[in-house]
């Protein structure tokens, strides 16, 4: 149909040019490299493999939470309960271990309860047609409240297996040391990339984010995807909570307060569009790394209050959302 | 192949279909005809499992079926292409074609095989685009063809096409029909819905006519002539249509122009142009798809900012600062994108209708309930909006009736200049005639109207003056009563090759 040729914008990409949809992720990596570069330039000892490794060590739980959140935001939803579910997970882990449960059972219990909570929220959101914001807000209060039902005090974890796992390290070439948490987080990322890009469930998640009604008319399993993402997020919250309990070696109802907002910030900075349909897990990881680098920079500076982290994150968030608007708007303006 | 008996579908407050029978045989193209709101889309959605039927049976190959979703229908071999492009513009072309049935290797989606399979299907329908490109980067017409490629991807035995041609130009339609004929030879049963009667006569073997949710009759195409078909669809004579044709111009020359554009232009959208629009005058904008019709209208309404030139409204210079300031100058704009820029689907007819009026009054002066009721009742009657229920959710109305509500929305603000961008696209003959008549009446009452349509005959019939656009440039202005379609066509075609490319 040659008649189409003149009216068609150049859909075929020039060789060597990256598609526009990767732009936000690339921008995030660029910001990461720049902030890291600034740090290396200003502070001695900043530019080392261990500083990079520590970014992963200190933010392993955040990466896992961001992975789950990416699934939810890709469908156009939001999950405000992740911080509270993570806290509940630390609490359940600490309490069951204190009660003498074997560690594997404690871990299974945590993962099952997180997934169940996510599943329930997903079911309510989908079958009752309630806004995800409200449902997950309710889930957030519920999970936070349940923490204090278990104990109002901080419960420390004495279990030897947990303590070993938390303190033992893996040596990488170049005198770099990472914890097992990092391995678990990176595995989670790998599985998430596989699921999102190479399974029908993953593609349906993107389709739902693009246009839910179209996806339904195409005969896709939209309800499974919509409920599924909240279950994935619940599972990731529980897993993130476990990593957090390894990091803190305690369970406490006031752990991870406000972490859901950090996670959302990381995902958005990572280039995932809040309206759904566009975004990559790799971007979310980059988003977490940017947040981590900013935090590290400020601690290297020493004299700055840690609240500067929040200020920088706020500015970055604003900049990235504006970048997204420009990118999303361009194709429609060219129509 | 398909046998539907006594099908009824009900929505809250609306009975969309009552006891309709429908048959579809393998190896035929069967046209479903009817006005807007006659129940064509509803019947299709009942067949494909989007809507539940409240009565009746559906048999596929003799076996009773009750699909609970489009996925099931697809598995049974019933594939549908909808009027609005129902694809995901954030995904690639290949993914859109094969979403939900991607080739897999070791349990993972095989991206390369997906693209190869998509390329093969695109090749089959003669569409030369990169399967790995993002769907949203292509124009709507291409997206529509991609939707058809998707429908072909399943080994469809029943192919349902709901107004597939409304966004295609004539060459693309010819291409589509070529594909349909091939499929018909292969024994596929094709259900075809279109408002273009010419197209139906070109492709369809049989037709079923619906009116007001009821079956009027089933005919062989060659046994039913056009006039009988139209009166079967309308259930009345074509008097309104003729009335428009016989109308004489009420244009009172010499009056101050309502709107005056001098050298108005925007880079990449439309070259600078001059345009005067007088009170009581209908100015038609004619041109091919992409000739800058909508772009010109958007400049006049301030929806886009001009780079050059001046705009004078009612003798006073107006700086186009956006739709709000233009509305306050008495300019109203009815967008061509009904779904995206027009109706608010979840609100009632009443709420949709008073929206612009409320915006004009400001938030401090709510529209009194009684006034709203009166206005709604008045316009429902005047424009023959069906169902005549102010509380009906507008998303449940048919396209033509939604368009009428949009028209009414602007009419209640009593604008001095009304810009209508494709007000009759995708709606049937009867509603079309009604809208044309309303436009003529409005002009007679002294309103200035800019009328945009892809159908040249319609533009010529409705307008007092026709502005012809080509390649984003104003090329001619034809005035007088004796302007004919061929005049406009030759203005469009001047120096630009054969006239054959003009969609009529």
Automatic annotation (TrEMBL), chain A:
Subcellular localization: Cell membrane
CDD domains xref list: TM_PBP1_transp_AraH_like (cd06579)
Ranges annotated as spanning the membrane: 22-43, 55-74, 104-128, 134-155, 176-196, 227-249, 261-287, 307-328
UniProt entry keywords in alphabetical sequence: Cell membrane, Membrane, Sugar transport, Transmembrane, Transmembrane helix, Transport
Main location: membrane
MF GO annotations: transmembrane transporter activity
Membrane topology: Multi-pass membrane protein
GO cellular component terms, A-Z: plasma membrane
Record protein name field: Simple sugar transport system permease protein
TrEMBL record, chain B:
SUPFAM superfamilies on file: P-loop containing nucleoside triphosphate hydrolases
Gene Ontology CC, one term: plasma membrane
Membrane-topology annotation of the record: Peripheral membrane protein
Sequence ranges assigned to domain ABC transporter in this UniProt record: 2-237, 253-496
A molecular function (GO) term: ATP binding
InterPro entries for this protein: AAA+_ATPase (IPR003593), ABC_carbohydrate_import_ATPase (IPR050107), ABC_transporter-like_ATP-bd (IPR003439), ABC_transporter-like_CS (IPR017871), P-loop_NTPase (IPR027417)
Pfam families hit by this protein: ABC_tran (PF00005)
Ribonucleoprotein recorded as keyword: no
Coiled-coil parts of chain: none
Subcellular location: Cell membrane
Keyword terms of this UniProt record: ATP-binding, Cell membrane, Membrane, Nucleotide-binding, Repeat, Sugar transport, Translocase, Transport
Record keyword RNA-binding present: no
Protein name: Simple sugar transport system ATP-binding protein
Organism: Streptomyces aidingensis
């Amino acid at each position: 149909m040659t008649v189409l040729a003149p009216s068609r914008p150049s859909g075929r990409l020039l060789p060597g040019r990256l598609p526009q949809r990767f732009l936000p992720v690339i921008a995030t990596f660029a910001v990461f490299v720049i902030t890291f570069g600034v740090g290396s330039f200003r502070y001695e000892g900043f530019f080392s493999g261990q500083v990079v490794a520590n970014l992963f060590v200190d933010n392993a739980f955040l990466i896992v939470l961001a992975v789950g959140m990416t699934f939810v935001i890709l469908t156009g939803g939001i999950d405000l309960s992740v911080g509270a579910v993570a806290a509940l997970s630390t609490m359940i882990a600490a309490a069951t271990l204190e009660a003498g449960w074997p560690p594997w059972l404690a871990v299974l219990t945590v993962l099952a309860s997180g997934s169940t909570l996510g599943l329930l929220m997903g079911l309510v959101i989908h079958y009752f047609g309630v806004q995800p914001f409200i449902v997950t807000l309710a889930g957030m209060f519920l999970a936070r409240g349940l923490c204090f039902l278990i104990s109002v005090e901080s419960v420390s974890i004495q279990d030897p297996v947990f303590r070993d796992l938390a303190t033992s390290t893996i040596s990488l070439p170049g005198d770099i040391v990472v914890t097992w948490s990092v391995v678990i987080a990176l595995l989670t990322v790998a599985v998430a990339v596989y699921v999102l890009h190479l399974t029908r469930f993953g593609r349906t998640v993107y389709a739902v984010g693009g246009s839910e009604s179209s996806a339904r008319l195409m005969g896709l399993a939209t309800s499974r995807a919509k409920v599924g993402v909240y279950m994935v997020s619940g599972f990731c919250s529980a897993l993130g909570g476990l990593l957090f309990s390894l990091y803190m070696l305690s369970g406490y109802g006031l752990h991870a307060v406000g972490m859901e907002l950090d996670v959302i910030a990381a995902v958005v900075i990572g280039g995932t569009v809040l309206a759904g349909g566009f975004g990559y897990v790799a971007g979310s990881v980059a988003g977490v790394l940017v947040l981590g680098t900013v935090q590290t920079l400020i601690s290297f500076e020493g004299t700055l209050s840690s609240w500067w982290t929040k200020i920088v994150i706020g500015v970055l968030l604003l900049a990235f959302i504006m970048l997204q608007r420009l990118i999303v708007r361009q194709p429609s303006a060219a129509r | 192949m398909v046998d539907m008996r006594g099908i009824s579908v009900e929505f809250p407050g609306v009975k969309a279909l009552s006891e309709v029978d429908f048959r579809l045989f393998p190896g035929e193209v069967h046209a479903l005809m009817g006005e807007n709101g006659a129940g064509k889309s509803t019947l299709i959605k009942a067949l494909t499992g989007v809507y539940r039927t409240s009565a009746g049976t559906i048999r596929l190959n003799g076996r009773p079926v009750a699909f609970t979703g489009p996925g099931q229908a697809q598995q049974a071999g019933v594939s549908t292409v909808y009027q609005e492009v129902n694809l995901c513009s954030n995904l690639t072309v290949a993914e859109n074609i094969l979403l939900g049935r991607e080739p897999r290797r070791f349990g993972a989606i095989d991206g390369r095989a997906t693209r190869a399979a998509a390329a093969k299907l695109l090749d089959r329908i003669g569409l030369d685009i990169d399967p790995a490109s993002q769907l949203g980067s292509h124009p709507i017409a291409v997206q529509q063809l991609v939707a058809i490629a998707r429908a072909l991807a399943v080994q469809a035995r029943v192919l349902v096409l709901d107004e597939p041609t409304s966004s295609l130009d004539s060459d693309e339609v010819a291409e589509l029909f070529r594909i349909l004929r091939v499929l018909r030879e292969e024994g596929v049963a094709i259900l075809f819905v279109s408002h273009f009667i010419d197209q139906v006569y070109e492709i369809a073997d049989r037709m079923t006519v619906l009116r007001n949710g009821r079956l009027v009759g089933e005919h062989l195409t060659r046994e039913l002539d056009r006039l009988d078909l139209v009166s079967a669809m309308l259930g009345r004579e074509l008097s309104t249509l003729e009335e428009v044709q016989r109308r004489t111009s009420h244009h009172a020359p010499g009056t101050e122009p309502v709107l005056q554009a001098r050298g108005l232009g925007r880079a990449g959208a439309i070259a600078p142009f001059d345009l005067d629009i007088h009170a009581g005058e209908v100015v038609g904008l004619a041109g091919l798809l992409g000739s800058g019709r909508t772009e010109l209208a958007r400049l006049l309404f301030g929806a886009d900012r001009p780079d050059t030139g001046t705009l004078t409204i009612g003798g006073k210079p107006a700086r186009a600062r956006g739709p709000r300031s233009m509305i306050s100058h008495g300019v109203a704009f009815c967008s061509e994108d009904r779904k995206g820029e027009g109706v608010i689907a979840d609100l009632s007819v009443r709420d949709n209708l008073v929206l612009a009026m409320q915006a004009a009054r400001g938030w401090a002066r709510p529209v009194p309930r009684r006034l709203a009721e009166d206005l709604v009742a008045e316009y429902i009657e005047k424009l023959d909006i069906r169902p005549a229920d102010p509380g009906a959710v507008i998303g449940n109305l048919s396209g033509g009736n939604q368009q009428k509500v949009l028209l009414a929305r602007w009419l209640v603000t009593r604008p001095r200049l009304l810009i209508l961008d494709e007000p009759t696209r995708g709606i049937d003959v009867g509603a079309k005639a009604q809208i044309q008549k309303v436009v003529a009446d409005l002009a007679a009452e002294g309103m200035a109207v800019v009328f945009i349509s892809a159908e040249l005959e319609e533009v010529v019939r409705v307008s007092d003056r026709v502005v012809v656009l080509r390649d984003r440039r104003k090329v001619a202005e034809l005035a007088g009563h004796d302007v004919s379609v061929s005049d406009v066509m030759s203005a469009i075609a001047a120096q630009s090759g054969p006239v054959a490319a003009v969609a009529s």
